[in-house]
Amino acid sequence: MSLEAHGISFSYVPGQPLFTEFNLVVNAGERVALEAPSGAGKTTLCRLLAGYLEPQDGSIAVDGVSLNSLFRRNRLGNRSARRLAPLPVQLVWQHPEQAVDPLMRMGATLVEGLPSQQGLDEARASGLLERFGIREEWLSRLPHELSGGELMRFCIVRALLSRPRYLICDEMTAMLDAITQARVWQEVIGVAEEQGMGLVVVSHSPELLNRVATRRVRL
Amino acid sequence: MSAQAMKETLAVDVREAQGNAGSTCGAAPAAAPIPGRHHGHDHAAASLHPGGHHLLRVEGLNVSFRMYDPGEPFFRARRIERPVIRDLSVSVHAGEVMAVVGASGSGKTLLADAILGLYERNVRVSGRILFEGKLCGPRELADLRGHGISLVPQSVNNLDSLMRVGKQIVGSCGRGPSGRRRRAARRERMLKLFAQYRLAPEVADKYPHELSGGMARRVLLACALLDDPRLIVADEPTPGLDLELAVRALDDLRSFADAGGGVLLITHDIELALRVADRIAVFRDGTVVEEAPAAAFEDPSQLRDPYTRALWHAMPGHGFDAVAFDDAGPFDAVPQREGSDGADAKLSHRPVKADHDTIGGNA
């Protein structure tokens, strides 16, 4: 049970690869910190692991199944479904205001990742709304009516609702004040331990990584 | 903050406002750092009063928005007044970095706007703002903008993406021989600033999208410094930068303060603020709950306010505790004080709420 990247390479500009032959194994229940100077490709690696980008070389596998075949299976199996089933790897983006549809109510945004029709009831039953302090009245609001920290909590719950096996946190709490940051991490780590989820953590703060990570990897 | 604590701070402020009504702010002996508590805040070693006054002093600032009641149905909603900043007092000395630290979305940027005299149409501002000991109304604040007080804005998006960086920094200089002379002088000054802040002269000919995050920050700083300000207001200058670049950006502000200027650093990141600031003002629910020297954050017992202590314990380097600092808990820390705890009765001691064009007029 692990999220594995085997010998992946990626470059935006041909001839200037961000990384070549990079290997990473994240086991279930582990919290891996990615360390690298700015511009070294931390965010790019996060996007590769979550399937938003495809590596030019090498492969990424989730619990033994490659991301590519997961994509294909989703497409074939749900040809009639309006939405694809969520991947078992979910990414929490660095800037929540850029990761939500500005014209969609937050309630709809929250259950975007759920295939079923009774999305919101399922979300309420999961207890995640209370754990992350999301209030009922926020569900009818538009993104610009919430603060950055509140939006970030929505994005985290949106990712967790699809019950991912691996969660990738790219500077997840960089915008939050220290108290909210501590509270958010407490809940995320709690959920991860309950469900045996593996975490990949990117942060600029070494102290935060000391607190959160169980292992460190240099890019 | 308890009602009792609120009354105490108010009492201090009112006394001071009366004491200072005629003279410049404070009776501090010039150039002598005063340890300990004094006119409502603690001092850091570097905090000086050249000329016997603060560089910037904000007293009892209230900012509220007139808006339609969002809790009512659309057609029945009446206008209400929503306070965002309440009775805020903060001061910046020459030669120091003062950090205002608070949660995102708590109205910190409105403080910057108030100091720069940038007001929305539906805003009401009251209180006193003194710059170099002189009481400033909105017109004076507008005149000071770029001629004494400069803003380093929050986002790199504030640069014009279709204009070469050098042209933006030099700005408009007018036409004719005098304009050309002015432009040449400003260009020369810009290149001097570039050298000082480790930017290559070629940067002037680039477009904003060709700059890295750290370079863009320094360009924004150069924009602010070109006008030779005495006070810089920096609004969230670090998000999106990694630790190394963020520290460098803050070091640039630090060196400006060391050269005798004042910096008001507005940020949510208390760890970074503690690296450069001389003093920290903790901002919560629209007001400053505590102004303390940065050294006080080495030991939580020196911090008076329970929220500040909760903040200290929540820092990853300390306890990383998500303590509930009051009944509501951190996720419910939304100001809900309207007329609830007697604070409003006390507010009547403040100057009567005035429209923005009379700010400072009740001195």
Could you walk me through the main structural features you see in this protein, from its secondary elements to its overall organization?
The complex is a heterodimer of chains A (219) and B (363). By secondary structure, chain A is an alpha/beta fold. Chain A has helices at residues 42-49, 67-77, 106-110, 119-126, 128-131, 148-161, 178-195, 206-212; strands spanning 2-10, 19-27, 31-35, 57-62, 65-66, 89-92, 166-170, 198-202, 215-218. In chain A, α6 (148-161) runs parallel beside α7 (178-195). The radius of gyration of chain A is 17 Å and the shape is globular. The model of chain A has no long low-confidence stretch (mean pLDDT 87). By secondary structure, chain B is of the alpha/beta class. Chain B folds into 2 domains: 3-148 and 229-358, Rossmann fold (3-Layer(aba) Sandwich), CATH 3.40.50.300; 159-216, no CATH class. Helix content of chain B is 31%, strand content 21%. In chain B, the strands form 3 sheets. Chain B has a 6-stranded mixed beta sheet with strand order 8-9-10-5-11-12, with helices on both faces. Chain B has a 4-stranded antiparallel beta sheet with strand order 4-3-6-7, sandwiched between helices. Chain B has a two-stranded antiparallel sheet with strand order 1-2. Mean pLDDT of chain B is 75; it is low at 1-36 and 324-363. The interface between A and B is medium-sized, with 31 and 35 residues.
